[in-house]
Amino acid sequence: MTGVVATAAATAAAVLVPSAAFAAEYAAWSGGSGSFQMSSPAAGFPGADLTTDGAPVTTPSGKSIWMGEGTPFGAEFGSSRDQGYIGIGTTGGNLPSTTTVVFDSPTPPSDWGFALGDIDVDMVRISGTTAGGGALAAADLGYQSSFNLCQDSPRPAGCKSAATDQPVWDPAAMTLTGTNSGDTVGATGWFQPTASIASLTFTFTDFSGIPMFQFWLAAHAYEVVAPVTPVLITAPGDPGGDPGDPSAPADVLGRCDDMAGEVSLALLDAGGDPVIGDDGEPVVAALDDGAFRFPQVFPGSYQVQVVTDEHYPVDGPAVQPLEVTDDAAEGPSFSIECTPEPPAASPAADDHDSADDTHPALPTTGPGAGLWIAALLAIAGGAMAIRRARRL
Q1: Model confidence, pTM
Q2: Which residues touch 129 (CB under 8 Å, ≥6 apart)?
Q3: Rounded to an integer, what distance in angstroms lies between the CA atom of residue 269 and that of residue 271?
Q4: 3-class SS at 344?
Q5: What is the pLDDT of residues 161-215, one digit of tens each?
Q6: What is the residue extent of each domain of the chain?
Q7: Which of 66, 175, 231, 352 is 20 to 30 Å from the Cα of 128, by its Cα?
Q8: Which residue stretches does the UniProt record annotate as biased composition, category Basic and acidic residues (predicted)?
């Protein structure tokens, strides 16, 4: 069967499917001894380094204290239940502590937020720098509201009671201040910045009680799906084919099952550099269940690159732009060709009239060979894509 080359093509078109409740994409924390690392909550959003002279510092799991979907922050970013956060105290002697968060690169000016919790008998002053190096203004922080997470239902296990106190935001002083009416649980304020931020600094001052504030950071994220869709590509020649004409193109079903593990999509930033995931590795989507999936992508401008070898050439540009917005994704559209190996010829049965003979004795060379190859491929179940093939 060396006289026929059977090829098949598959296209990948990017579509956007928002993950459930934005998948509650919260940053995770690791580290110790006053130096901590924040992982990216979504591909395309920067990680950060946090330094503090406060103590103690904890990184709870979010199992006992969380912001449910009934809270303002949870309604925007999803529940923080079982999502990590960081808790920071004052310095020795209950003196004010200073905590600075430096992002790996300036943040986008929208689609993310942070919350400061347990602000009851204490106060946090917020400062920081913009992407241009200037000082942050109160408007840049985008204060939204204050609430008490213990008012939500179901009530977190860490709530001592259905506390109602809420901290007060003073934009002139850029401070979030507790009511100082007792050491409670759940008093929280939240922010959605409107500027590109390079760093945030929290100066934490205690009035009484057990001093510690909580810091959550979350971002919008979407699942970007590029499904593999069968297409029919017609080679030059008679588009209808003619079984009686050996020179006419014949329909051949392509066997592209082995594309999985051989073809992947890499997510690049707008400048063409790899986007790094929360594991510190470039973000790559493998073929799974008929589609390539990037599960957590922050809204923004990206590029997508097909990573393949000579067995699956890309028909067209291998790198194309991808625009992810709050409700859609535009581009890319790839065409990937796969060249299947011809199936091995089945041994001829002694009795071709037998009812058990599933492979009719058709020629494998000469007139009609193209139809025989098509029949074998169809029997083998290769139906990922269809392309017309011409005899060489």
Answers
A1: 0.78
A2: 135, 136, 197, 198, 199
A3: 5
A4: coil
A5: 899 999 999 999 999 999 998 999 999 999 999 999 999 999 999 998 788 999 9
A6: 8-17+223-389, 21-219
A7: 66
A8: 349-359
Q: Could you tell me which residue, 104 or 364, shows the higher pLDDT?
A: 104
pLDDT tens-digit map of 302-354: 999 999 887 788 888 899 999 888 767 777 888 887 654 555 555 554 444 44
- Rounded Cα distance, 381 and 43, in Å: 37
The bridge status of strand 385-389 relative to strand 232-233 is: parallel
The residues, ordered by sequence, that sit 6+ positions from 306 with a Cβ below 8 Å of its Cβ are 12, 263, 264, 265, 314, 318, 319, 334, 336
Phi/psi class of residue 78: alpha, beta or left (left: φ > 0; alpha: ψ in -120 to 50)? left
How many Å separate Cα 354 from the centre of its chain?
A: 56
Q: Count CA atoms closer than 13 A to 8's CA, side-chain side.
A: 25
* CB hemisphere CA count around 300 (13 angstroms): 26
Q: Taking Cα atoms as reference points, which of 38, 29, 20, 104 lies closest to residue 275?
A: 104
On whether the CB atoms of residues 208 and 182 are closer than 8 A, the answer is no
DSSP state of 242: -
Q: Measured between alpha carbons, how far apart are the two ends of the chain, in Å?
A: 11
- In single-letter form, the type of residue at position 380 comes to A
219 by DSSP, 3-state: which?
strand
Band of residue 291 on the pLDDT scale cut at 50, 70, 90:
confident
